[in-house]
Amino acid sequence: MKYQVLGPLRVIDRGAAWPISAPKMESVLATLLVRGNQVVSVPQLTLEIWGENPPRRATPAIHVYISQLRKLLAGADARDRPARQTVGPIVTSAAGYLLQVGPDDLDCLVFQRLVQRGRRELVERRCAEAVATLSAALELWHGPALGQLCNGPIVTGFAGWLEELRLECIEMQIEAELVLGRHRELIGRLYRLTSEHPLHEVFYAQLMRALFASERRADALRVYGHAWDVLRRELGLEPGLRLRELQRAVLATDDRSRVPLAAYAG
């Protein structure tokens, strides 16, 4: 049994993917997956499902959801096991419930490993390898992490952390491609990224570098001006030091080789 959380929550059984149709049962499974191989208490599950206003019979309801999940996750081969044998990956303890997850069973664990490997390759300037590794990591995504299932603090916090890691993965992938000289190919994508993430200064800096290296100095300076306007309007702040230094370098020279590449340092 495998699980996908890099997009809507899905369970993969023998190559077939299916969603969890009951929303509260889906919340229980998502919480157990986020805390994979760790015990989650009944009060924590209660908070994830109902927030600060649980129903009077919340605890019995959770026991029912766990029972339903056990049947769901037992797999098609459960009928072939001895009746006395524990079936399925959910373990009960005095403190709560634990979902056993292997290192390849959950797509976000695979994603993390690929990001770590891509980061090492980029730091070591093995840029072609880094692009391949980080591209493979991004291909695991099928939408926002856990879809629209972010209600409680455990799942919401985890989904936010995953999104930050996804953005870092994109940054590193683009950085590796810039070092490989793929400036013109990246311009359209970087314009889209600055539109989707208008407060993310790294994408502005990468777009400026791509434009300047493509002999579009004026466009690079216009990107800085746009970033300055957005940051002042939204946050009351000027661009950070890295972006300001890049703007000064573009203003000061026509020599593309003298504009800092701001190499990724991990």
From TrEMBL:
> What CDD domains would the database entry show?
BTAD (cd15831)
At the top level, the lineage of the source is: Bacteria
Tell me the SUPFAM superfamilies matching this sequence: C-terminal effector domain of the bipartite response regulators, TPR-like
**DNA-binding region residue numbers:** 1-101
Taken from the record, one Pfam family name reads: Trans_reg_C
Keyword list, A-Z:
DNA-binding, Transcription, Transcription regulation, Two-component regulatory system
Keyword Phosphoprotein set for record:
no
- OmpR/PhoB-type domain boundaries: 1-101
Which family does the similarity line name? Belongs to the AfsR/DnrI/RedD regulatory family.
Name of the featured protein: BTAD domain-containing putative transcriptional regulator
Q: What species is this protein from?
A: Kitasatospora phosalacinea
Q: What is the lineage of its organism?
A: Bacteria, Bacillati, Actinomycetota, Actinomycetes, Kitasatosporales
